[in-house]
Amino acid sequence: MHTMAEITTAKPLLPDGLVAIVKEDCPTCVLVAPVLADLADRASMTTITQDNAAFPQAADWVVHDHDLAYSWFHDIDTVPTLLRVVDGEPTERLEGWKRDDWEAFTGIDDLGADLPDWRPGCGSLSVDPNRVDELAVRFSGSTMRSRRVEIAALEDEWEALYDRDWSDGLPVVPPTEARVLRMLEGTTRANNEIVAVVPPDLADVNVEKIAINAVMAGCRPDYLPVVIAAVEAICTDDFNMHGVLATTMDVGPIIIVNGPIAREIGMNSGGNVLGQGNRANATIGRAVQLVVRNVGGGKPGGVDRSAHGSPHKIGLAFAEDEVGSPWTSLAESRGFDADQSTVTVWCGGGPQVFVDQLSRTPESLTKHFANSLKTNLAPKMAMMETLLVIGPEHMSRYRDAGWDRARFLAELDSHLQLDTDDLIRGADGIDEGLPEAFAGNTIGKFWPGGIHVVHAGGATGLFSMAFTGWVPPPKGSVCTTKEITR
Amino acid sequence: MTTVLDPTSESRPEQRELVPRPESLDGLTIGLLDISKPRGDVFLDRVEEKLTGLGASVTRFMKPTFAKPAPVDLRHEIATSCDAVIEALAD
């Protein structure tokens, strides 16, 4: 029996000739144990054992794959696997037990005469879900460059991450190398590729740092491309993440996902769309905010000067219900195709529900919606910006009447032209308002292009939602869309 | 023992010495930066009046928008043309 004291990180060469890879914890391997001994004797076959070093027996033809390097590097998925090895590399392989095939492969007759003709193999230890990530870290020649932080055995690892000030207040998943490596499988981008410069510290962020924070937020690897695109979008000069963070208002980035990826990764666009309960929705926005916190250094009480904040600053991402919508999607309205996956980031405060359970015509519903929106932010605020999330039951009014997005926006805006005499400072006994010079005119509640519309929500409920905005473009934040690349 | 990867930028702030505090404002050029908030000018007009009364000359600057950091050129201009600057937020 051969053993190796050291953990290998380089690809080990297999012994030439016939090689069988087995483990004791596999009934088929146990079944063929006499055949392995027979082939060692008659064909000088080597057996490599994954678990018990003395299985099928302690003998000089049995090699222990103690660190699973043979199995990992030579892509063993099943045990038993027979290999024909030339110059250390397999040239042919055969999986499971089938007498005829084993005899043909080895050129030896009368193998395992007492055994059943055929038995399937078992999973190789090197692809065991509990081991595969650690093996990947050990053997894949990790190129991750982030500083390694060791958490002592007696330290609670969850508390340790709080102690280092890396959390938004909720527990974060410890970003072990294995978890980060698995997260990086979610993208084809190199982990050292710089994605953006993150405010307020203006720190470069690469794919690896985003992956670390995505692990901490609880993302699955297939969410990573969405997180990367969203980080890229909020770090543009247009979106102005520094200002969004520094303002004393309640705003934060709101992430809307369009296109096939939203459905592929299971994002919610239906019931409770803005609420809890969907992993992708809950963790994508959180990952983006953790990047701002941990990489950008933007923390409440630091550059984040928000007076009240908002529950959605923990992170808010959701998908548009495109399948159920009669309208072009938000992304299409912004110049992208329906088959492109995109993130749109918009800076907003908290949402408010709009209730209308009696309107049966689009005219009535739209006018009512406009009346409700007149108080968005405050009744005297004009030339603002909003995001409307129209629920499916409200949308059915527009579908039935054949209204499209453009018609809706035009009609809505026509009801949102305000008399500035009502808005100036002192009007209605309220000091707040527009400067006196604005008197005697009309002004839009929202700037042209300042109403963003998304279709989402549960199938039942005659409600929609309206978000408050922030400083409109170009001075504040510009709604920004980026295509998601894998 | 668990090993985790550092989620931060791993950068350390650069330490810089403060310039010496002026003994007096007499004859100095003081920069006043208006961040473009409504009525910030009212406040800064009064500050300018007070500073001029103390013998300083005042140069006024303005950010294009209060919602973004001051552009680097503006910061450079203030740093090179003033002996001291008063920067304040207003809301």
Task: Reconstruct the topology from this structure.
The complex is a heterodimer of chains A (486) and B (91).
Chain A: E1 17-22, H1 27-31, H2 33-43, E2 46-49, E3 62-64, H3 69-73, E4 78-79, E5 81-86, E6 89-95, E7 97-98, H4 99-106, E8 118-119, E9 122-123, H5 132-139, E10 148-151, H6 157-163, H7 177-184, E11 194-198, E12 203-206, H8 207-217, H9 224-234, H10 241-246, E13 252-258, H11 260-264, H12 279-294, E14 316-319, H13 330-333, E15 342-348, E16 351-355, H14 362-373, E17 384-390, H15 392-401, H16 405-414, E18 417-419, E19 442-444, E20 446-455, E21 463-468, E22 480-483
Parallel strand pairs in A: 1-2, 2-3, 13-14, 17-20
Antiparallel strand pairs in A: 1-5, 4-9, 5-6, 7-8, 11-12, 13-15, 15-22, 16-21, 17-21, 18-19
Helix pairs in contact in A: 5-7, 7-8, 8-9, 8-12, 9-12, 14-16
Chain B: E1 2-5, E2 29-34, H1 40-53, E3 57-62, H2 72-81, E4 84-87
Parallel strand pairs in B: 2-3, 2-4
Note the overall shape of chain A: elongated
Which assembly state applies to the chains in this document?
heterodimer
Note poorly predicted spans of chain B: none
Instruction: Name the beta content range of chain B.
Output: 15-25%
